[in-house]
Here is the input.
Amino acid sequence: MLSRIVLLLSAIGMMLAQSANAGLNVFACEPEWASLAEALGGDRVTVTSATTARQDPHHIEARPSLIAKLRRADLLICSGAELEVGWLPMLQRKAGNRQVLSGQKGYFEAAMLVDRLDVPEVLDRSLGDLHASGNPHVHLDPHRLLAIAMALSERMIELDPQNGGLYEQRRNDFKQRWQNSIETWEQVAAPLKGLRVVVHHMDWSYLFDWLQMVNAGALEPKPGLPASASHLTSLKQEMEQNPAAAILHTHYQSPKAAKRFSQLSGIEVVELPYTVGGAAEVTDLFSLYDVTLKRLLKLVQ
Amino acid sequence: MSTRLLQGAAVMAAILSTAAGAAGDSSFNPEISLILDGRYGSFDNDSDYELPGFMLGGEAGRGEEGFHLGHSELVLSANVDDLFYGKMTAAIAEHDGETEVELEEAYIETLGLGHGITAKAGRFFSGLGYLNQQHPHAWDFTDAPLIYRGLFGDQLLDDGVHLSWVAPTPMFVKVGAEITRGERFPAAGASNDGVGASTIFAKVGGDLGESQAWQLGISHWRAEVEGRTSGGHHHHEDEEGGHETPTYSGDSDVTGIDFVWKWSPHGNATERHLKIQGEYFIRNEDGDVVMDDESDAPESTTYDGEQKGGYLQAVYQFMPRWRVGLRYDWLDSDNKGSDEEVLAEAGLDNEGHTPQRFTLMGDYSHSEYSRVRLQFARDESYEDKDNIITLQYIVSLGSHGAHQF
Here is the structure.
């Protein structure tokens, strides 16, 4: 009986393995990388994302459906830099898929390919949940994202040389469109320079670095810790002396803390999409930047 | 003295700064974590604990009274190379006034076999059931369910090999088998030249939309038991005042079913989160019980036992950091033997009592590394009913690996 089940399952497995030969089976840890893989791979890639824009990529579980998906993946794309440290190593161990282990060609760690901000000088848990390798939320700087896209395309060609020509063509197309967009974005975003905003978590460091915006403070007293009343009170006092234009939070963070601080300080709350799917009109990386800038520019009009 | 202290502090600072510098590249360093667990227990009655119809062993007991420590665990793990991962967990605990170090886990596991296959060798928690593979610090209540207490002495762990395979299917399907030594409770004697016990299990699981995830498992464990004593928790004095230790030899097999279902709004568990889980086990044993009193002709009986039970629990995080949980446990047994009196002396006659327990808990986690818990249990697992209040803290220091689903 058991041997029959095993036979049946291996037959299904072989069928699936064959259909996967026609391209790459991509497992993305976050929606931004799923979207990038789709942009670069077109119909030659089958992409699943482990998280949605409504989920906090720091905190998801190595649940059965994800183990099953990683088991069949040819390419694993994650932010890395310890963003997924709470669940990805467990998934890798459980999936039994050699190709997507750290150090293998099938594991693409995006943040490690670019310079990272906020690298802590001291690691101490009393300072909050710090990432030793620096801030992993790198996709919000379009220049870094372009560098990552070029490296990812190379990796896809390496893994699936049969479709190399197509990947190269799509990469050149993406590069052209992205560079044009960067020019447009940098022109329209000029008024944002020097804009002071309060953030929920350190999700926006790369965006601020790009646009030369100023992080005026965080609702989280320490990274990863929820906002406390005493912290918000002292933050309010800081704001009275040196006001900020808005309080930013992502789609996956509860707006409660931001609203509470808004009532306290009178500062407006702005929800930014943060990633693909973070707002109804954000369907790819281009619209992610379009919508982010549109919402921020409202603050300076 | 003060200069020595200063020197010590300087050395510590140097070690810490080196560790911090190297932390960005942890691949060459084992991940080290330390779990600290402290408790306060309050009970309504003082009688000796027993579980009617079950021979207790392993870690089984109702817990300590007053201030005491739980298991302090030191965990080291790392990828050995590109093929193996290694892990060791040492639990430091006090038993009867003696501090003991227990090796809970010491195993290597393959990383690079591919094809969904994972092999493990060494000492590990068996893949049987759902809760069995979780460390006590990851449990949602301060103690194990009664069925784990009654059958496995809280947890089933053994030395041996484990092989599992994840099918390449859209739905999560995993099958596995273990062959182990069979020397630790509830097996004994390392029969068959040290290959005395085996386990097979299968799990399926998946998502229901983006908010729900589930897993269902079945498992079976069997052993040839040679001389299982009930672990010192259950000594009986005979009429002359000598000690008798009930000792079982024979076949033992356990079959179980387990499920877990989790829900969180849009799959985002940071705000609210509900987990419902349950397990049911049934054990059949066929052999002999001897009341070992170190004499040449100890009392004995044949033993044909059926012991079963389960638990059902729900844990709800109603706001960040705060959770409440409710658990119901029940046990039953139907044990027969040629000499009912000997069976009763061995604690295997339940005297018409079916153990049950209701447990309510609330806990607060300041961060993902610390938790404080208050638990109340109405314990009717033995004949003297008890109300048990436990206050517990659990913290983890150092790099803390991900928990299983």
